[in-house]
Amino acid sequence: MEKKTPLFHIVKRDTMPLWKAWAVRLASILLALVVCAVFINSVTGLNPLSVYASMFDGAFGTGRRIWNTVNDAMILLCIALAITPAFKMRFWNIGAEGQILVGGAATAAVMRYCGDSLPTPALFALMVVVSLLCGLVWGLVPAWFKARWNTNETLFTLMMNYIAIQLVSFLSIKWEAVKGSGTIGVINQSTKAGWIDTGFLSGIFGRFNYSINTTLILIITLLIFVYLNYTKHGYEIAVVGESENTARYAGISVRRVILRTMALSGALCGLVGFLLVSGSNHTISVNTAGGDGFTAIVVSWLAKFNPFAMIAISFLLTFLTRGAGQIASDFGLNESASDILTGIILFFILGSEFFINYRVLRSSRKEKEAE
Amino acid sequence: MDLILTILSKVFTVTFFQKAVTQGVPLLFGATGEILTEKAGNLNLGIPGIMYMGAVGGLTGAFFYEQSTPEPSGAVGVLITFLCAILFSAFGAFIYALLTITLRANQNVTGLALTTFGIGVGNFIGGSLSKIAGTAGQITVYTTGQAFRTTIPGLSQIPVVGPLLFSYGFLTYLSLALALFFAYLLARTRCGLNLRAVGENPATADAAGINVIRYKYGFTILGGAVAGLGGLYFVMEYLGGTWQNNGFGDRGWLAIALVIFALWRPLRAIWGSLLFGGLYILFAYIPLGDAAQEILKMLPYLVTILVLVVSSLRRRAEEQPPASLGLSYFREDR
After folding, report:
1. Parent domain of B206
2. Do B112 and A294 touch (CB under 8 A)?
3. pTM
4. Residues of chain B positioned with their CB less than 8 A from the CB of A343
5. CA torsion B5→B7→B13→B15, rounded to 10°?
6. Backbone phi and psi for residue B316, each to the nearest 5 degrees, phi listed first
7. Residue ranges of the domains in chain A?
C-alpha cells in the first residue's frame, strides 16, 4: 500500500559553529534588503541603490547627523540592556516604554522645580536618583504580582505603559508652556539647568556631540555584560530562565530573583528616561520613548542577550529609521516607510533563526522504503 | 453628590450608549480574532498591526474602486472593501503564522515586529495613497463610507429602541454575529473541541490524529482576518471613509486586553467590549477639567490590570489561558 511521506523532514541541529550562524544572519539581512529594495521600487519607482545612498546620507551625512544616529542607537541599546536581565529570566517586560516615561517625567519635574535653586552636581544627582526610583517602582509593581500570584506579566507591563502615557499627558497639560497647547516645550531654555552638556570636549568630538550619553551607555553595556556572565546574580537569572523548578531545587529563591531583576530592569529604563530628557530632548511628551521600548525587545532577542551584539543590531535598526526618515523627506514619502523596512528586516532575521537551529532534510528513498 | 448625579444623568443616555457601542465594535472584532488565535496556542501581539493593515486594505480597495468609475455604487464598494480588508489582514496573520508555526520564531517578538510593520503599512499607504494616485489632499471614499454607515431603514426610526439598537451600520451586527458564531463553534462543535485541544496540548492533539499545523495556521489566519474587520469598521463607519495617521491609536492593545477580560470567551467579549467602549469615552462625561480627564483615560487599563490580578488570584481551571499559549510546537521535541 502506498503511504504518504512528507517531502521534507526537519531535525534539530547540534550547535552550529558561531561564524556559520552569523553568516546565516548576515545572509538574511542581505535578503531582507533585497526585498526592501523591491518594495521601494514598486511603490516609488526609484532606483533602490540611490535610495540606499540617500539613507546613508541621512544617517551619516553630516557631523550632526552622525551624532544623532549614534545617540538614537545608544538609547535603543540602553533600553535593550535594561530589559535583557528580565528577558533572560523569561520575564516578558514589554513595559519599558512606560518605565522610561515615568523616569523622564521625574527628571522633567526636578528640572522644572529645582532647576534654579539647586547647585548643578546636586541637581544631577537628584535627577538620576528620582528617575531610577520611578522606573524601579514602575517595573516592580508587575514583578511583585508575578512573583506573588504568577499574574501574567506581558499584559500587566503593557497596561502599565498606557497608564504612564496618560500620566505624562496629564503632566503635559499641568505644565503646558502655552495655555491650551498641551505641550511642555523646552524646559529651562534660558538657564540650561539640568541639561547634559552637548558641547563636551568639543575640540575632539565636534561642536555638537552626545559624547556624555554615549560614554555612559557604553559603560553600562560593559557592566551588564559582566553582571550577566560573571556574577552570582547573573547565574541565578540564567537558572530561573531555564527552569524555575531547577532553580528552586538548587535553593534559589525564585521570587527574590524576579523582584531584584525587575527592579534593576525598571531602574535602568528610568535612567534612559533621564538620558532622553536631560541629555537630548529637554522636554517630555507621550512620544519621548517613541516605540523604542518595543523595538528594544527585538534587539535584545536577536542579540541572544549578548550586550555586544546588541550594539550592532541597535545601529542597524537606527540606521534604518534615520535613513528612512531621510528618504521620506528627499522623495516626499511618508515617514512610516521606515517601520515597514524595519518590519521586513526583522521578519527575515527572526525567520533565519530557524535555519540556525534546525536542518531541513529531503526524505530519502531509503527511508521511504523502510517505512 | 451633585457631580455624581450630573455624571450619571449624562451617562445613562442613548447617545452615551451609542458612542460606547461605536468604540466597542473594533475591540470586539479584535478580541474575537485574538481569542481564535490564542485558542490555537498562538499569542499574537501583532493584532494591533493587523488591524491597521485591515483598515488600510479596505480603504485602498475602496479608493481605487471609486477612482476607476465615475459613478461608484455603494454595494460594490462595500464588497470590494470587505475583500481587500480581509486579504490585507489575513496576509499579516500569514506572516505571523509562517514565522511562528513553521519557522518556530518566538511569538512575542514576532508579534511585536508585526505590529511595527502593520502600523507602518497602515500609515504609509494611508498617508501617501493620494500622492501615489496623483490627487491632492486627504483621500476620502465618500460613497463607500456612507454605504457602511447605512442603518436598517424602518427599525432605526422607532423611538428610543431604534437609536439604541438599530442605528448602526451592518458591521456592528456582524461583530455580534461573529462573536456568537465563534462562541458556538468553540463550545459546541467538533472543530472547536479540536481547536481547544491544539491550544491546550498540541502533542496530545497530534497523537489523537488532529492536524495541529493545519489548525494553527487556519485559526491564526482566520483570527487575523476577523481582527482586521475591526480596523475596517474604524476607517469606514467611524471615520466615514478616510485616513488619519495613527488614528486607530492603541485600540489594538485594548482588544488584546479584552481577551483577558473575557477569559477567552467570545460571549463575555461582547459585553466586555461595551464596557471597555464606555470606559474609553467616559472621561469626556466627567467635568473635572482637561488635566484630570487624562487621568480618567487610564480607566480601561486599570480595569484590565484588576482583571489580570483577580483571575490570577482565583486560579480556576476554566479561567486560565490555553496551556500551550506562546509555545511553538515541534513534533520531534520531547
Report:
1. 25-250
2. yes
3. 0.89
4. 113-114, 116-118, 120-121
5. 160
6. -80, 140
7. 14-46+331-371, 63-322
ipTM value of the model?
A: 0.88
Cβ of A163 and B298 within 8 Å?
yes
Q: CATH number of the domain at A63-322, please? A: 1.10.3470
Residue with cell 485541544: B197
Q: Which of B236, B219, B281, B232 is nearest to B254 (CA)?
A: B281
B332 located within any domain: no
H helices of B40-106, in order, are 47-68, 74-97
Neighbours of A86 (CB within 10 A): 29
Question: Closest residue of A to B126, CA-based?
Answer: A334
pLDDT per position in chain B (334 positions), as tens?
Answer: 677 777 777 777 778 888 889 899 999 999 999 999 999 999 999 999 999 999 999 999 988 888 888 777 878 888 999 999 999 999 999 999 999 998 888 898 899 899 989 999 998 888 777 676 666 566 677 778 778 877 777 777 777 777 777 778 888 999 999 999 999 999 999 999 999 999 999 999 999 999 999 999 999 999 999 999 999 999 888 888 888 888 788 889 889 888 988 889 999 999 999 999 988 888 888 777 777 888 888 888 898 889 888 888 877 777 778 888 878 888 776 5
Residue type at position A98: G
Q: In a 10 Å sphere around its CB, with 0-12 CB exposed, 13-18 middle and 19+ buried, how is residue A179 labelled?
A: exposed
| Structural domains counted in chain B | 1
Q: Enter the C-alpha cell of residue A363.
A: 526524505
At residue A12, φ and ψ (nearest 5 deg) are -75, 140
Q: What is the C-alpha separation between A229 and A306, in angstroms, rounded?
A: 10
Instruction: For residue B130, give the amino acid letter.
Output: S
Among B131, B294, B312, beta carbon nearest to A332: B131
